[in-house]
Amino acid sequence: MKMALFFPELFLLLSCLVIFLLTLGKMRSSTVRNITAALSIIAFLICAGSLRLEGDLFFKAYRIDLFSQLFKLAITGGVALLLLFSRELKGIEETIRAEYYLFLLLSALGLVMLVSSVELLSIFVALELSSYALYLLVPMRDDHSGLREQMEAGIKYILFGVVATGIMLFGMSYLFGLTGTTYLSELIPAMNQVIGTPAAIVGIALVMGGFFFKLGLFPFHFWLPDVYQGASNETTAFIASVPKLGAVALLIRVATLAAPSAATLVNLLMILAVCSMFYGNLIALVQKDIKRMLAFSGIAHAGFVILGIITLKDTGFASAIYYITGYMLMNLACFLVICNVSVKGENLAISDLTGLYKRAPLLAFTLAVGMFALAGIPPFVGFMGKFMLLAGALKEGYLTLVILAAINTAIAIYYYLSVVRVSYCTDPEERPALTVAPLTQVISIVLVLIIIIMGVMPAPVVDIATAAVRGIM
Fold first, then answer.
1. What is the per-residue burial (b if ≥16 Cβ within 10 Å, else e) of 399-436?
2. SS3 sequence, the chain?
3. Percent of the chain beyond pLDDT 70?
4. How many structural domains compose the chain?
5. How far apart are CA 12 and CA 115, in angstroms?
6. Cβ(428)–Cβ(355) under 8 Å?
7. Selected residue with higher pLDDT from 275 and 91
8. Whole-number Å distance between alpha carbons of 394 and 384
9. Least confident of 2-6, 97-101, 161-165
10. Cβ-contact 382, 374 below 8 angstroms
11. 1 falls in which pLDDT band (50, 70, 90)?
């Protein structure tokens, strides 16, 4: 029975070992690609089958519950979709593609372990496993065109990551010093006794700093635009979507330490949320490179997720889970288009999407759905997610914050719709038509349908997210 609890992680670890063995030979990259995609799909199915399992492992440092299993399902689902639509890996040199898949799965394994970790040291180990595998993916971009910005991006990523890790560890030492334990189950009642003290506030804030780095929240956002631009399109698609699930899961677990009330911490999160939204949206307005635009957009969306965290209630946490899951799908839809329009794996300017509706109608429609959803236009998942976050914050009395968030939504509509305008309201001029693989077309349709269905019928996802959150509070 204990083996069944850890089966998703064991399968991912076994998958990493299989890919590692493949790197030792001279197997064709297409074969490695197909094996990795198949393993990712099986991992997703295993997570779906273990959704209702519950139990503890490793001296109760590792918790299997609905909360962790729900995030594992979303993480493995995101990885599977990414591997399916980025099959050619145009931006990665062919001789190291097997190693690329290995590090990608290792990062996914770290994230899967992260959402089940309920002890500070196990959280740290899982976070570093995910992070260091990801650090290696960025400089693996092909430099066939003399492109070297991936090296700068990789250096910035790891340096900022090390600083964020140090800050998080310092905060963990505060929490351990105050409570004498590293287990979250014991930290929660102990923190309730000292939550109003400066040391407790500082400790929780510093620990959250490590998670803010993963989420790309102000002021831990500086790495985001350069890494998005310097990494390959496939790597950026992963960084922009899947790790943010792990960050939100950890933020919710740590936020339960401060529940039901911690005015100082809430005020701090409100300030960071407002700064993230305004900074991200205003800078995104002037971007010409679509990946940099999505990077600054991601900073703004991180601010929106915090609207659910500051409520310190199950409904707010559930809204945050719903929103970040939808955000992953919206980003994957946009990067599906970017990966297929980019013929040689190069970065795309927004102008490169000129006349996309004639060159590849399905890609243009997928991009439009992704952008409309990110902008918060109904009936897509982005609208419903923003609505629930704003409604939850308003219910808790954060009227000023809701007004500022609504203003930011209006700002964001401009640059999202400008991308759709370029795709649909301009002629392709002399740009060639694009050929889209049948599997990519299927994945595109699946993403569009999920984005619409989750927006029209949010109740199933919200209900299971609410049940999951109540299980950890």
1. eebbebbeebbebbbebbeebbebbbeeebeeeeebeb
2. CHHHHCHHHHHHHHHHHHHHHHHHCCCCHHHHHHHHHHHHHHHHHHHHHCCCCCEEECCCCEEECHHHHHHHHHHHHHHHHHHHHCCCCCCECHHHHHHHHHHHHHHHHHHHHHCCECEHHHHHHHHHHHHHHHHHHHHHECCCCCCCHHHHHHHHHHHHHHHHHHHHHHHHHHHHHHHCCCEHHHHHHHHHHHCCCHHHHHHHHHHHHHHHHHHCCCCCCCCHHHHHHHCCHHHHHHHCCHHHHHHHHHHHHHHHHHCCCCHHHHHHHHHHHHHHHHHHHHHHCCCCEHHHHHHHHHHHHHHHHHHHHCCCCHHHHHHHHHHHHHHHHHHHHHHHHHHHHCCCCCCCEHHHHCCHHHHCHHHHHHHHHHHHHHHCCCCCHHHHHHHHHHHHHHHCCCHHHHHHHHHHHHHHHHHHHHHHHHHHCCCCCCCCCCCCCHHHHHHHHHHHHHHHHHHHCCHHHHHHHHHHHHCCC
3. 97
4. 1
5. 15
6. yes
7. 275
8. 15
9. 2-6
10. yes
11. low
Q: Is the pLDDT of residue 131 over 80?
A: yes
Domain range holding 358? 2-472
On the question of pLDDT at 47 being above 80, the answer is yes
Q: Please state, in angstroms and as integers, the Cα–Cα distance from residue 450 to each residue in 125, 325, 382, 445, 461, following that order.
A: 33, 11, 12, 9, 12
Report the pLDDT averaged over residues 228-232.
84
pLDDT computed for residue 449 by the predictor: 92
Can you tell me the distance from the alpha carbon of 217 to that of 211, in angstroms, rounded to the nearest whole number? 9
User: How confident is the model over 140-196, as pLDDT tens digits?
Assistant: 877 765 567 777 777 888 888 888 888 888 888 888 888 888 888 788 777 777 777
Q: Compute, in degrees rounded to 10, the torsion defined by CA atoms 433, 434, 437, 443.
A: -120
Question: Which of 280-284, 353-357, 430-434 shows the highest mean pLDDT?
Answer: 280-284
What residue type is 281 in one-letter code?
Answer: N
Please confirm whether the linkage preceding 189 is cis (ω < 30° from 0).
no
Per-residue pLDDT tens over the stretch 347-386: 788 888 887 888 888 888 988 888 999 888 888 888 888 8
For tokens 């950026």, what's the residue? 236
